[in-house]
User: Fold this.
Amino acid sequence: METQNKIAILDFGSQYTKLIARRIRELSVYSEILPYNTDPKDLADPAIKGVILSGGPRSVLADGAPAVVPEFWDLDKPILGICYGLQLMCRDHGGAVVSADDREYGPATLQLEAVTNPLFKGFETQTRVWMSHGDRLEQAPAGFHILGTSDNAPITAMAHDSRPLFGIQFHPEVSHSQNGLTLLKNFVTGICGCDQDWLMADYMEATVAEIREQVGDDHVLLGLSGGVDSSVAAALIHRAIGDQLTCVFVDHGMMRKDERRQVVHTFKDQFGIHLIDVDASDLFLGRLSGVNDPEKKRKIIGRTFVEVFDSEAGKLKNVTYLAQGTLYPDVIESAVAVGPAQTIKSHHNVGGLPEKMNLRLLEPLRELFKDEVRQVGRLLGLPEVMVERHPFPGPGLAVRILGEITREGVAVLQEADAIFIDLLHKWGLYNEVSQAFAVLLPVRTVGIMGDERTYEQVCAIRSVSTTDFMTADWSRLPYDFLAEVSSRIVNEVKGINRVVLDITSKPPGTIEWE
Ligand code: XMP
Assistant:
């Protein structure tokens, strides 16, 4: 969307760069991550009201450290350097940066000289902040003054005497930094003068108009999985172009319980979207018969999916666009410090299709973070269960049924999984965790039901908390909740007589079992 009001964040490779962008958007101001070597001419765009330099893993003292060109500092707009950004500002203006003996990581107390600087409006003189740095400033450059200090970093915050240049050693974007959001707000709305006009309803209407204009009289094809991203993309595109959109939903036979029915009901019956739902379960399960190896299973599913999707798409006439639910984190993942990138989700099931089918890409969500996509989904009237749904892998239950996949195994796991998820909702825990599911193990154990000896399969339950799914911790679910899950699964699901809990974090484990 064209906005006249945004903040550019130059990325020097920090793990927190995305978080800076998120925090600013939380303030209803649009923010964009750009490579650190973006041409200052592009940054001169009047819509960019201010620039933030992110942290980064390198040392500004090292040869070849990422830097900005000298003309960057001539930009006539506010600049805030965070950590590496501060050190770069200091170095480039002739101050002294030294490498510290020890890396400082964790909480520190910021002691402000005075709270008169607009960056620290609303702060007390002492504030807890979060540090993560090796190098530190020893001497501020000429023309700058020190705003705050801390035990390990004598210059924790500085500002230019007359120009709007600011630098801080700590990370305001991290929630452990007290008043971090206030500082960002002071910079973005106070110093840069941004209006807080990034509102999802406006964004949605503007995107609908853009889709209409881009697509014109052409037709769009979308692979609908039932997940949040493709569902929101479908509803949004449908709002823009109605019947010019066709969705294809491939049921590979390893979806969650009732998933196909829900997808068809929501999109076909409620939204009136032109939806082709294909029951390809026989084909998929037939090809998977006798296959135990996880990688082989994934390959068969990937290949078969493309085949089925391709064949359905081939029946349609006049399709020129393939729509995908690509999100902003997918776009910036590979843009980090190398230059703008236009990537397609590599793990996405329809990856490879556009080249083969000669279709143009339509990616209406590529500027949005996941929670923003959820807001758009709500505005479009998608059901809450769909909008809040945990991620579900493309190969579906195939990666949660260890060993050979059979129709019976799928049915058993669907029941157990549905009980677990249903109870998470009932206990108000579903939105507290990031992803939860059941896994069916190819192991039988002995049990006793009534007076009868049983010899049935084991079900593992897995629940994790994470922000980016790259690392994750297992959820500390209440014992009474776990007791109810276990008792209901063993009592109600024929074929399972034992439930175990997965308490492995990622790394070293992965979230899925295969
Ligand atoms: P792992 O198991 O790698 O999972 O820790 C990280 C996240 O990715 C999801 N996942 C997939 N998603 N196709 C997908 O669309 C796949 O093949 C796939 N494998 C894993 C997983 O559910 C978790 O959210």
Summary: Residues 336-352 have pLDDT under 50 and may be disordered.
